[in-house]
Design brief:
Length: 110
């Protein structure tokens, strides 16, 4: 795949996810501390982004860098993380305690 195609498809993924989240280019730009013009260039594939901006966009749009760059989801998606993200904070405290106890048990059985 050509470099221009990579930028074009990355831009399409950024725009689609941004719109899915109901964000404008201006709002996304504010969230990641860049100009709206940079978002526009990224979405149209006119310019490559700096690595730190790729990270910021991925965080702001809640997408993996793998998906942004290649369009492919990680083979082993972090389903545990996604499931945990749906729980209220007070329940996460219990889950964390359970996990810590399991880790301690595994270490004692080594």
């Amino acid at each position: 795949m050509k470099s221009n195609d990579i930028l074009k498809f990355m831009g399409l993924r950024i725009a689609a996810k941004r719109k899915q989240l109901g964000l404008t280019q201006e709002t996304l730009a504010e969230k990641i501390d860049v100009t709206p013009q940079m978002i526009s260039y990224a979405e149209t594939g006119k310019k490559a982004m700096r690595p730190e901006n790729i990270i910021k966009i991925c965080e702001a749009l809640n997408m993996s860098a793998d998906y942004l760059l290649t369009g492919k989801e990680a083979e082993h998606e972090d389903t545990l993380y996604k499931n945990l993200a749906t729980l209220p904070q007070e329940q996460l405290i219990y889950i964390e305690a359970i996990i810590n106890n399991c880790i301690a048990l595994c270490r004692t059985n080594q």
